[in-house]
Amino acid sequence: MGRPRKYPESPAVVPNIGPPVPDADPDGPPTPEELEDMEPGQLVTVALEWPRMKITPAMLHALNTTVRELNQADDEHGKSLRRQCISRLGRCGHIELHPGCQMVTIDVPVLKRADGRGGVWYVQINDRRFVGKCEVWECEARTILELVYHYRQVEHDRMSDDNHMIDLDTGGMVAERARAIQRA
């Protein structure tokens, strides 16, 4: 006796997603040519029936759309289908989710205060710190470098002589002061 199967021996049909998959072979997943002619509902059915199959960009779009449409579902079937789609997307690799994304090496600086008072910050995403040479995905590298750019921009604005401050105590009209207070 062994442990029970994780996936059913024959694929289960998920009702109310779309029309049945045409010419689907019960022994294996559909071919890429067959996938091109399918509607989004059929692609979701195929993705859920064949969990080990690589997800195509069209399947990814169909799964994401289904999850968005079922976000406010009240019935049990809708909630169950949404959970299944999220679970399927969670098992996808990075290459399936971001086709064409490559690993790159970047040098992430330590972020220091410009006034020399001390204080060191690290670029951190989801409790993972990035310092020095890091090998990350291209999309993650864009996010890291954008965070560094914004930090430096804020530090520059903070330390500049014309730091965009309005003196509310000297001169000026009451209306201008009120607008400045509302903007702040």
Structural topology:
Elements: H1 32-36, H2 40-49, H3 57-69, H4 76-90, H5 94-97, E1 103-108, E2 111-112, E3 120-121, E4 123-125, E5 128-130, E6 132-137, H6 138-159, H7 174-183
Antiparallel strand pairs: 1-6, 2-3, 4-5
Could you walk me through the main structural features you see in this protein, from its secondary elements to its overall organization?
The structure is a single chain. With 184 residues, the protein is an alpha+beta fold. Helices cover 43% and strands 12% of the residues. The protein has a two-stranded antiparallel sheet. Helix 2 (40-49) crosses helix 3 and helix 3 packs antiparallel against helix 4. The model has no long low-confidence stretch (mean pLDDT 81).
Short description:
With 184 residues, the protein is an alpha+beta fold.
Which descriptors would you attach to this protein?
184 residues, alpha+beta, 2 domains, two-stranded antiparallel sheet, 6 strands, 12% strand, elongated
Please tell me the overall pLDDT: 81
Rough outline? elongated
Helix content: 40-55%
Number of helices, counting only DSSP H or I runs of 4 residues or more: 7
How much is the radius of gyration in Å?
A: 26 Å
- Report how far the terminal alpha carbons are from each other: 70 Å
What quaternary form is this?
A: single chain
Helix/strand-derived category reads: alpha+beta
Beta-strand segment tally: 6
Largest β-sheet summary: 2 strands, antiparallel
Return residue spans where pLDDT drops below 50 for at least 5 consecutive residues: none
| Strand residue content | 5-15%
Total number of distinct structural domains: 2
